[in-house]
Inverse folding.
């Protein structure tokens, strides 16, 4: 049975965020709100949790398309190679926001991702997600939770999410209704922006 509690996006309660971080640190998997759809996440440094998320999603961890959710751009150099000033300016302009940026991965990526040439980086414009990552002290691995319904691609109601995921995860955070449109994915690994998926983030920013 998953824990389920409310955190308010306008002003996340630090004690509630501490509970979330404690669950992540002991290898737990959470479902949490972002500025787009609800995400499935775990601590990037916890191998057991990473394996579990890959199993839930039915993918090989090394080949997964999970993104790294960061608090800001300050620790990017831990995970990506040095980038041009023009690329950094795009990131500064767009983040926090509903974008996933594909960037060239560095050699210091966590073990399962070491062979990756690129990595997806997210800094969502959502205080709950940002506070969790800030208190945790490192990114969380994240992937969208898709719905089985062919018409409804993403479930937006936290209570319905709990019903479906109750036995698979350790915590569902009720951060209010989510969006049903995923992030816009932009590949910046070669310097020039290439749109991989058009989602909630406007392309006018580029």
């Amino acid at each position: 049975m998953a824990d389920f509690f409310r955190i308010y996006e306008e002003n996340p309660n630090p004690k509630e965020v501490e509970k979330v971080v404690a669950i992540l640190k002991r290898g737990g998997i959470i479902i949490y709100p972002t500025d787009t759809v609800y995400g499935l996440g775990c601590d990037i440094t916890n191998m057991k949790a990473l394996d579990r998320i890959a199993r839930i999603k039915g993918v090989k961890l090394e080949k997964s398309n999970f993104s790294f959710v960061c608090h800001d751009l300050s620790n990017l150099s831990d995970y990506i190679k040095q980038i041009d000033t023009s690329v950094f300016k795009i990131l500064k302009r767009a983040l926090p926001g509903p974008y996933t940026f594909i960037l060239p991965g560095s050699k210091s990526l966590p073990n399962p991702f070491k062979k990756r040439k690129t990595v997806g980086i997210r800094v969502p414009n959502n205080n709950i997600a940002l506070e969790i990552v800030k208190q945790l002290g490192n990114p969380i691995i994240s992937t969208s939770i898709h719905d089985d319904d062919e018409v409804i691609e993403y479930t937006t109601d936290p209570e319905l999410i709990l019903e479906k995921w109750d036995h698979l995860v350790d915590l569902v955070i009720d951060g209010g209704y989510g969006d049903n449109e995923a992030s816009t994915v932009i590949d910046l690994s070669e310097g020039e922006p290439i749109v991989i998926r058009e989602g909630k983030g406007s392309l006018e920013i580029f």
